[in-house]
């Protein structure tokens, strides 16, 4: 793994869209990091509800099953939208944050050194 | 707003890194969508904990304050990592999902038509 | 504080109602602790949504405001129902658990010894 | 089911303990409903983390397995503590709320009328 070369995550254009969207609706004063963290929670709750009564095996079909295919895309999008908006309001670079975390994860969970066939 | 031109979100390289990371540790069988949705919940819980006793005004400084600057980046990264991993296992294109959702949001919350100075 | 005398929490009759309710609908196989923990998450998400755009000051009126009075009661009830059900399936005595936690909390956050007027 | 006779849930003494606890530490101003809803989220996140990599079958042993027996009790307690505290600050009667919700649930999910062996 070499997470230092080019960007792992590029959300620049989404950041700009969300900022313009909030601006046009005068939503900036509602979008404190505290409030956005709560909104993120709400969306994750809606996402989790899609999986709660499924078996693990069934859960792999959530995005293919007609009853949930659109819903799961919408909820994943909502979570990403609030996450990107929260990072943007906090002026956090998500690409840097993810890179740093992956390096820490690689140290915390070293891959087994056994040769793989 | 014109969310139809080029990609709003590009997580292609992160998807690949996470897949290689899980592969090297034989984690695929743990990474069912159901389990990943739960892991996402746990990380959002840790993120929210950083904001819970703050006022809204204080929450804007979370990424600047030495006591929380690294923690908030780590938790934002963890949420993004599990979200991208979940979408990847479900074979959902996050860019398409976000685009579709933004169009729906624009219809649901029309911007006021008054001219802005 | 003397949390050792009689019960702080009595949910015996609710446990019994929920068990009969699940039994009559053949829900036991769906009610694994893992699934109930997810259902709990979903309900907490719905509860949090009621507060997310409120100021702290406004949040005190949530149970009085006609638009949210019933909703907040319903969501609090849903969270409690899934929590009690989860503890019941795990055979955890919530009264014992709360007592032990309060003793630990009192040690972790000692009350200031200054005399209060 | 007859959820109208005596109380299904009695948390009166816990409400009083929590109020005294907050009072002794001058925590009332931190305990707005908005903040308590966030704290509840954080605790649910910690609870869910205990189950996230388990199979459904394994999850039934969480309160018996030495590695998780205390942790799951502590997290269940934390969720209950913040839930009861939140209801208390909102002046919501949890017993009434649960009763009303159970009646609604019985209407929403009628039990099958087939005789059971």
Automatic annotation (TrEMBL), chains A, B, C, D:
PANTHER family referenced in this protein's UniProt entry, alphabetically: DCTP PYROPHOSPHATASE 1
Keyword tRNA-binding found: no
Protein's organism: Verticiella sediminum
Domain of life: Bacteria
Keywords, in A-Z order: Hydrolase
Record protein name field: Nucleotide pyrophosphohydrolase
Tagged with keyword Disulfide bond: no
GO CC terms in record: cytosol
GO molecular function, one term: dCTP diphosphatase activity
A GO BP entry: dCTP catabolic process
């Amino acid at each position: 793994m070499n997470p230092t070369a080019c960007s792992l995550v590029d959300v620049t254009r989404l950041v700009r869209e969300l900022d313009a969207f909030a601006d046009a609706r005068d939503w900036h004063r509602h979008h404190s990091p505290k409030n956005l963290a709560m909104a993120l929670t709400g969306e994750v709750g809606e996402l989790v509800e899609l999986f709660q009564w499924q078996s693990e095996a069934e859960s792999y079909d959530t995005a293919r099953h007609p009853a949930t295919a659109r819903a799961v895309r919408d909820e994943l999008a909502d979570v990403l939208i609030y996450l990107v908006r929260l990072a943007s309001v906090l002026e956090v670079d998500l690409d840097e944050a993810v890179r740093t975390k992956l390096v820490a994860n690689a140290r915390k969970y070293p891959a087994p050194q056994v040769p793989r066939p």
